[in-house]
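Aim 2 progress update. The chain analyzed this quarter is reproduced below.
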Amino acid sequence: MGSLVAGVDCSTQATKVLVVDAQTGALVAEGRAGHTVTGERGARETDPREWWEALRDALAQTGRADEVAAIAVGGQQHGLVALGADGEPLRPSMLWNDTRSAPQAAALTEAIGAEHLADRVGSRPVASFTATKWAWLREHEPSMAEATRAIRLPHDYLTERLTGNGVTDRGDASGTAWWSSGDEAYAADVLAHPLLRVDEAMLPRVLGPRESAGEVTAAAATATGLRAGALVGPGTGDNMSAALGLGLAAGQVAISLGTSGTAYAVSDRRTCDPSGIVAGFADATGRFLPLACTLNCTLAVDRVATLFGLERDDVAPSGEVVALPWFDGERTPDLPNAAGTLAGLRHDTSPQQVLMAAYEGAIASLLDAVEAIAAQTGGLDPAAPLVVLGGGAKGRTWIDVVRRLSGRPVLIPNAQELVAIGAAVQAAAILGGEDPGDVAARWGTNAGTALDAVDRDDERIARIGALREAVVATPALAGTGR
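Predicted structure tokens:
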């Protein structure tokens, strides 16, 4: 067996660690530890120290931490970690799915301009972005903002605990709304805006895709069981890490069916969408990762199943029933105050039909996102299969609905925990001085189940589109009339 590397996935709910052989990608050991997410009415928070404790626990579970030669961290995007003068978190981190900063997102867009923001930072910020959360903190907790000496993203926090260095990468930095994907530097004019007032010295240094973040310190080694001096990769955001793990080629699109739904594609071309539908992120290789996200996916559908006491796959053809399962508001379209909507009910409508409609509503939003990405990138590879990831990729009904509503061939990768695998790919690349694409190809991470295309259900797509247009046009339903 060759050298061992570790990939970390610090997600919303848990931290997972995979220890793999750097040469073959063979899984050697794994560990997992959960986090606590608190909040209601739009608030979603976690104490960052829980991520560190979870990383320690997950590494201990592997039993191989002391053999790891290199490690990298993939983390949930966008979250705001505010550190004080002592380097400790001043308050719980506002997570990506915390929607309280929707008014600040709107204010930033109005003050700076959607076109200018898209041109400067690649995206029109919505409530998930770090900059909007900082604006919220400035407005609602000004003393906390004044006490802040450093601002970090979730993966940055863990990387800094490991190395002592305040660094990030271009992929995760591109989700803050204050780093320019065009200039490959922080956007000074955005940072200086009165709604933000961020000193660049508070922000981490942005590393290149193949630049080491440093080495595991003696203190971190004692805390985690890792070897002092083990290399640490720059890390990246979770979506960038999953794309890295898959070795996605330019023009290939993936959708992830998790708590949220995500669609993204690797692109050689930088995208700038002032509508806010497509976020113009950078990736972890030096290219770009245009992405669109929905807030409601597997969790929302599971909620519908629970309401009716149904198993997840206990469904029937939806008939006239149409559902928009926007239980947590929605990000695509940008309606943070919207709620779920159900239409087409009859006396003989069954719970199974309603559940199927919830699946369809969630997938239709993601497929709209795919089309928006295609428009921004100048087109996607029509011959390439739709890569389906996340927990939903294991569900029979999820896959059936994806095939029926997309009309495209589908690839379900065999590899699980792709965010952690992508982080491990990065760690192996840093260790061996390789291109991460070569590492992913050697590991065969894109092997999986290939499914042929079926005829697209255009009638169902039309029904869902009609309801969505009606909701968006109705302030009381869209949550825009408050």
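The mean pLDDT is 95. The radius of gyration is 21 Å. These observations will guide the mutagenesis experiments scheduled for the next reporting period.
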